[in-house]
Amino acid sequence: MATAKEQTDGWISLFDGETLTGWGTTGDADGWVVEDGCILCTVQGGKYLYTEEQFDNFVLTLDFKTGPNVNSGIFVRWADLEDAVQSGLELQILDTHGKSPTSNHDCGALYDALGPTRNTCKPAGEWNAMTITCDGSIVAVALNGEEIVRADLELWDTPHQNPDGSRNKFGIALKDFPRRGHIGIQDHGGKIWCRHIKVKPL
Question: Are 187 and 66 in contact (CB under 8 A)?
Fold first, then answer.
């Protein structure tokens, strides 16, 4: 929960530590539970968990940890609940501790678009602190206290193409993606725990 001071500063708790109030799922309700003050993906057909409320410009903070080799992601500005990938931006969560060089599929990446400048991901089973900022066309990610991604979506002006000419999977240029939508957590077949989820609208 956000502290009284954080609430005064404009922060909103998205998770109360006890229930999934304010969240919906695109899959089996048993796929997501609350365990020891954390949201846990149980890998039982949970698909995606998403906030019922939608946000446009904001700072989002959360802690996460995963099991070994687990793949997941945080989706932001996710507009179409039937199609997360083509209507929301994914910030990658993946057990890539120690991997170098980094790619746009590694932990903290703006998935398939821009990789982290440095690998700051902790080993599987350890908590990571992530901050995601969406402000107009700017999307930034800090992982464990270090900014590792800063993207200006206006530079992604061609479908299926990144600014460096490499191919991506997005049928719409990222500059034309929705600028408002749900915040989501992805079930990709592995256990992920999240806690201390807060957002501050800008």
Answer: no
